[in-house]
Amino acid sequence: MLRCPNCNSKDIGKIGSHQFYCWGCFIELTVNGEKMSVFQVEEDGTLSSLDDLFFEEEIAQEVHAN
Fold it and tell me: pLDDT class for 11, splitting at 50, 70, 90?
């Protein structure tokens, strides 16, 4: 079961083939394989990436591993 990385909610709706929406904190998630991207939906409908906030530790671990 998919959980929101922001609020840990299970109340996730599918809005596309690889796109999901969290009804708990109103963010959009894109999942491709094992990679997840997180976006904030702006007032005008555009998406702003939040990956640097959520996946900073993962990125740092990958850099150190290489």
Answer: very high
Rounded Cα distance between 15 and 19, Å, is: 5
Residue with tokens 């996946």: 55
- CA angle (15, 28, 30) in 5-degree steps: 75
Sheet strand arrangement including 12-14: 12-14, 19-22, 27-32, 35-41, 47-49
Cβ atoms of residues 42 and 49 within 8 Å: no
- Which tens digits make up the pLDDT trace of 38-50? 999 999 989 999 9
Confirm if 57 and 65 have CB atoms less than 8 A apart: no
